[in-house]
């Protein structure tokens, strides 16, 4: 009897799954009758159940995977995502410009992303669309103005000089190797806390907030059990699966809740301060502006839940500013250690600052080689290598170069039906041989100062012709905060220390898959990057 009951439950689950699949297919293709252009692409036979998502999630380098597909199928191709679903990939510059310009409008976060973002951060700016997104962005924009950013620079320098003192003590004790990625995490988090919210996490003093443990506990899918992996790989098709109590989903929820006490305490503290004194500097901070938005006089009218979500925007900052900044700094140190002559050229440019530091204006408008190192690090190592959105209405995407359809027809535009998921592989575009030349995969800051960019690269919109900060309505609102943090930190470290890889310039560097991909020295366990560091007199 138990056997029949088990079989009945299995059949019921299978039938329910079939109904869900058919229902989703009907919802996807109903309406105007428009059909997405059929394009060639990777075969679904490699993994019929999970499609290419499993390959993308476990690939050691997603940008190179997309590059292989572009070389085989062209700059627009079909991507099987399991259970018969097919997405579209656009690696064409003109198509990417069109697509990103319509982000939050014609294209929204995918249902899969919406579920994960809500679980991690709540209904903040990453989650919002259309008018809601514009309103939240408008509320946050003043906190990232040039005037506000100029005031954050002393915070960045205070943190990096604290790090300098700590490293000098470590080296004086006889150590010659320091694991730099953890220290880049610490400095990024302390800077976010102090400059963004007036809260010191004291990571550089040895403290470790609970939310960092949560992020560090996140495992890549291939390290999870079979059931957890299966659920993860099917969530793009069935986003509700992300809400099941798997290890990954529990990690996401812990990330959101671990910041709640800090967020609520900050709200109360700031309300009390603002009721006692009109502190204009406080009102220009992120949290001050958010609380100010609670009043009708601000004209922005964020709801109480939205304000709490935006102060839990600390969680958003972890995703958008903590790991991204720390990972980019780590990559910069790796690349400078791989290329001693480039490290020395940067040090020579910074040599004029003896007993002083570059100002905000110098970090922003001067120091061409520091700027080149920054741009090249972001080009070669974008923290988020790919963007996916779902079409909310039928669309026609123009192409800069013709592609061939699955039927053999040569076309110059794509028809995208409502409900189609479109991927933009920004990491591949950043390193495309067609756009950047034969040395596209190489770290060469000189391309930004010693020669003209190729016409294809010049056609890329976004920050200095790279797509690492996205573009359009979702152009990273905190990009200048991140750039100031990055440049101030790197300028001090390179002036005071030299960096070498533990096994020389050819030391193998791999990728550790977490919430975001992070570099790792391949001989190390986990996302560790030990470098040989020498103090400069």
Overview of the structural elements:
The protein starts with a helix and ends with a strand. With 537 residues, the protein is an alpha+beta fold. A five-stranded mixed sheet has the order 1-2-8-5-3. It is built from 23 helices and twelve strands. The chain has helices at residues 2-29, 52-58, 62-73, 93-101, 111-121, 130-140, 146-172, 180-197, 210-217, 226-234, 247-258, 260-276, 280-284, 286-292, 304-311, 313-338, 340-350, 360-365, 368-380, 426-430, 433-436, 455-458, 479-496; strands spanning 76-80, 86-90, 107-109, 177-179, 387-391, 395-404, 410-416, 421-424, 497-500, 509-513, 517-521, 530-535. Helix content is 51%, strand content 12%. Mean pLDDT is 82; it is low at 1-20 and 26-31. The longest helix has 28 residues, at 2-29. It has a single domain (31-218, 228-259, 312-535), classed as Cytochrome p450, CATH 1.10.630.
């Amino acid at each position: 009897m138990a056997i029949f009951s088990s079989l009945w439950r299995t059949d019921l689950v299978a039938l329910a799954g079939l109904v869900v699949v058919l229902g989703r297919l009907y919802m996807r293709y109903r309406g105007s009758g428009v059909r997405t252009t059929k394009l060639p692409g990777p075969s679904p036979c490699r993994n019929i159940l999970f499609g290419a998502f499993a390959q993308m999630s476990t690939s050691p380098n997603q940008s190179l995977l997309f590059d292989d597909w572009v070389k085989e199928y062209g700059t627009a191709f079909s991507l099987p995502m399991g259970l018969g679903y097919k997405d579209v990939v656009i690696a064409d510059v003109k198509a990417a410009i069109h697509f990103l310009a319509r982000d939050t409008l014609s294209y929204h976060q995918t249902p899969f992303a919406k579920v994960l973002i809500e679980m991690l951060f709540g209904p903040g700016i990453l989650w919002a669309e259309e008018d809601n997104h514009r309103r939240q962005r408008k509320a946050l924009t003043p906190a990232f103005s040039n005037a506000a950013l100029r005031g954050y620079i002393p915070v960045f320098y205070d943190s990096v000089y604290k790090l300098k003192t700590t490293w000098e003590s470590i080296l004086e004790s006889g150590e010659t190797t320091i694991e730099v990625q953890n220290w880049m995490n610490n400095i990024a988090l302390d800077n976010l806390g102090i400059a963004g919210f007036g809260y010191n996490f004291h990571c550089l003093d040895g403290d470790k907030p609970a939310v960092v443990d949560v992020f560090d506990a996140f495992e890549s899918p291939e390290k999870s059990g079979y059931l957890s992996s299966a659920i993860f790989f099917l969530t793009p098709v069935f986003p509700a699966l992300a809400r099941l109590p798997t290890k990954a989903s529990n990690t996401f929820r812990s990330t959101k809740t671990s910041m709640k006490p800090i967020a609520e305490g900050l709200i109360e503290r700031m309300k009390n301060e603002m009721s006692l004194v009109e502190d204009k500097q406080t009102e220009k901070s992120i949290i001050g502006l958010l609380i100010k938005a609670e009043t009708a006089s601000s004209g922005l009218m964020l709801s109480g839940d939205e304000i709490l979500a935006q102060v839990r925007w600390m969680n958003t900052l972890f995703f958008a500013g903590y790991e991204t900044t720390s990972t980019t700094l780590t990559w910069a140190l790796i690349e400078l250690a791989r290329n001693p002559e480039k490290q020395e050229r940067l040090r020579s440019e910074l040599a004029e600052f003896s007993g002083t530091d570059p100002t905000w204006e110098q970090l922003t408008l001067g120091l061409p080689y520091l700027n080149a190192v920054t741009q090249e690090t972001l080009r070669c190592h974008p923290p988020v290598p790919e963007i996916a959105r779902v079409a909310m209405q039928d669309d026609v995407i123009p192409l800069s170069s013709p592609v061939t359809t699955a039927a053999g027809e040569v076309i110059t535009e794509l028809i995208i039906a409502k409900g189609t998921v479109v991927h933009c592989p920004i990491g591949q575009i950043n390193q495309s041989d067609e756009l950047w030349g034969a040395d596209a995969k190489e770290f060469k800051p000189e391309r930004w100062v010693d020669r003209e960019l190729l016409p294809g690269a010049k056609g890329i919109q976004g920050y200095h012709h790279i797509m690492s900060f996205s573009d359009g309505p979702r152009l990273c609102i905190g990009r200048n905060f991140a750039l100031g943090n990055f440049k101030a930190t790197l300028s001090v470290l390179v002036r005071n220390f030299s960096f070498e890889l533990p096994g020389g310039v050819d030391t193998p560097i791999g990728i550790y898959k977490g919430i975001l991909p992070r570099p790792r020295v391949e001989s190390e366990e986990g996302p560790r990057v030990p470098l040989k560091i020498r103090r400069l007199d």
